[in-house]
Design a protein that fits this description.
- The structure is a single chain.
- The protein is mainly alpha-helical.
- Helices cover about 80% and strands about 0% of the residues.
- It is built from 24 helices and no strands.
- It is elongated.
- The protein starts with a helix and ends with a helix.
Length: about 575
């Protein structure tokens, strides 16, 4: 029977965690990319950053999701390190809303009674053809599962009156004075690391407290430990990010560890403050008072304990933020000293800028990230085209070899970036996505393929030039001038393409006439230069082999124009609202 009870408890915990993830996911999908715009816009000063963190986390019910999002934005350069630190501070305050919700709805109002009927509405909404209603349905189902899981957890926890040996075991943990405080702090930290959810650990702590398993002060110590354990999520997300992302995650750790240190030093006075505020606000017994005991969550003492623990969570993060908000710049300097930039910065130049911290919490936000990366890919590709132009004009053999090596390197970079973006898009496509998001992802697959072909084109030009040099052929001044004219036209087409990508990303692309004009100009140039070469061959004979190399490069430039116009056409089909 005990084994069945244990599995029931673990299953209830799984239901709670799944419900929380589902609810958070539904909220984020309903909010869409408005969250991204809100985060990047409302962070002009530390106070706004804190309020942004509070607001976003209160909405999506997950400080981990907010923190991972912030790390991704720092990784992408959308937020500075100082802005990120203030948002993370706010996220810590925002996550305390979950504790209050669980304390009030889960224990006092017993929302689990309505959870099953709510599942019906969630099911009906989730079968709607409209994406927004589906997301609301997911939110309702997640909300219901969360409180059903909480109810099952409470029911499956052993009754201490029937199993007093459990109480003796836990009481022995709580009988070592300040050593017990440290013991329960570590227990809260480890439990949060294992569950990867401070909200789940908070719910378990509330259950243990409400059923009299642990005294109020030990529950408070567990909450402090949960604040340390929750920082691991951001550090995991940043482990594959760039230096700035790692620094943002480290600032979260420093913030919470500092808070736990002062809370431990002032542990008794802090608990008395929490008790007085709970007593004054709710007219309940002081949970930090002498002789305070909890027998069940329904009694006034049980209510006082639940509200007191939630109050401690809120006060801890609010006071910590008020203490440290003035020192965001110093925290940024500290984490910059702890997390040093690589000595060879060149190693980071060609890493993915925007998606190397892993997918964001929802497909909609992940698509935004991938689009940023595609624009970055286009800029890398244009740099390769500039090197190709230099290689055409270079007559010094050693300098040409250096440029040829760069073009080969850029071709390899294009292959790698295409693969990584496509892999990222695959992971996004595996999630449940809206039809509009699906259309965008399909267009983005095509775009990264065209950009990879542009990278191949630069390497193709280097091979043509290498063959020319091996056969000791040289272009005359007119040929070099014409090739430069074509190269400049390609670079103009690149600028148009990047402008269209940027406009599509911001929802401002209306037509691609500029791209058609650039493509037509390239075709006209190629045709005129080709006709002139044929006339020269017929009139003067010329050097046939040299002319072949010349036309091969000319045709490669023209094909680059084809790849570039294809990208704008893909954008028009997927991103222009007609």
């Amino acid at each position: 029977m005990e084994i069945l009870q244990l599995f029931t408890l673990l299953g209830a915990l799984g239901m709670f965690l799944y419900g929380m993830n589902l609810m958070s996911s539904g909220l984020q999908k309903a909010a869409g990319d408005r969250l991204r715009a809100f985060l990047s816009a409302m962070t002009s000063n530390p106070f706004k950053g804190v309020m942004t963190g509070v607001g976003v986390t209160s909405i999506i019910q997950s400080s981990s999701a907010t923190t991972v999002m912030v790390v991704s934005f720092v990784n992408a350069g959308l937020l500075t390190l100082v802005q990120a630190i203030s948002v993370i501070m706010g996220a810590n305050i925002g996550t305390t809303v979950t504790a209050w919700m669980v304390s009030w709805l889960g224990f006092k109002a017993d929302i689990s009674i309505l959870a099953v009927p709510l599942m019906l509405f969630g099911f009906l909404f989730s079968n709607s053809k409209k994406d927004n209603r589906k997301n609301i349905g997911e939110l309702i189902v997640g909300f219901s599962l969360l409180f059903l899981g909480l109810s099952f957890m409470k029911d499956s926890v052993p009754d201490l009156r029937e199993t007093p040996e459990v109480l003796e075991f836990v009481t022995s943990w709580a009988a070592h004075g300040f050593g017990s405080v440290l013991l329960f702090l570590v227990f809260g930290t480890v439990l949060t690391l294992v569950l990867q959810s401070s909200s789940a650990t908070m719910a378990i702590t509330l259950i243990m407290l409400s059923m009299g398993w642990i005294p109020f002060d030990m529950a408070c110590a567990m909450v402090l430990g949960e604040n340390i354990g929750t920082t691991i999520t951001a550090n995991i997300a940043a482990s594959v990010g760039n230096t700035q992302a790692k620094r943002a995650a480290m600032s979260h750790t420093i913030f919470n560890v500092f808070g736990v240190l002062w809370a431990l030093i002032l542990f008794k006075p802090f608990l008395r403050l929490v008790g007085y505020i709970t007593e004054a606000l709710f007219g309940l017994p002081n949970p930090a008072g002498e002789g305070f005991t909890v027998t069940d969550s329904v009694s006034p003492e049980g209510t006082a304990a639940l509200y007191g623990l939630s109050m401690l969570h809120t006060l801890f993060n609010t006071i910590n933020t008020l203490l440290l908000i003035w020192f965001t710049k110093w925290i940024a300097k500290a984490v910059s000293w702890i997390v040093r930039a690589p000595e060879n910065q060149e190693k980071e130049v060609f890493k993915l800028k925007y998606i190397s911290a892993g997918p964001l919490a929802t497909p909609e936000l992940s698509v935004e990230q991938a689009f940023d990366e595609i624009i970055h890919f286009a800029q890398i590709s244009k740099t390769g085209a500039l090197y190709a132009k230099e290689a055409v004009c270079e007559t010094n053999a050693d300098k040409f070899e250096v440029l040829r090596g760069k073009l080969v390197k850029y071709e390899e970079i294009s292959d790698r970036v295409e693969y990584e973006i496509a892999t990222f898009l695959n992971s996004v496509s595996a999630e449940e996505i809206s039809e509009s998001t699906s259309i965008k992802i399909k267009a983005m697959y095509k775009i990264v393929g065209e950009l990879e072909s542009l990278g191949d084109s630069g390497e193709t030009i280097s091979r043509i030039l290498s063959r020319k040099n091996i056969h000791k052929k040289d272009f005359d001044s007119d040929a070099i001038k014409n090739l430069n004219t074509m190269a400049d036209a390609v670079l103009v087409a690149y600028d148009v393409m990047i402008a269209n990508l940027t406009a599509a990303h911001s929802g401002e692309l209306t037509d691609i006439t500029n791209a058609y004009n650039a493509e037509e100009h390239l075709n006209t140039l190629r045709n005129n230069f080709r006709d002139a070469v044929i006339e020269d061959m017929e009139r003067d004979g010329g050097n046939y082999q040299t002319m072949v190399y010349y036309m091969d490069i000319m045709n490669t430039y023209e094909r680059m124009g084809d790849f570039i116009i294809n990208i704008s056409q893909d954008l028009e089909r997927a991103f222009v609202h007609k």
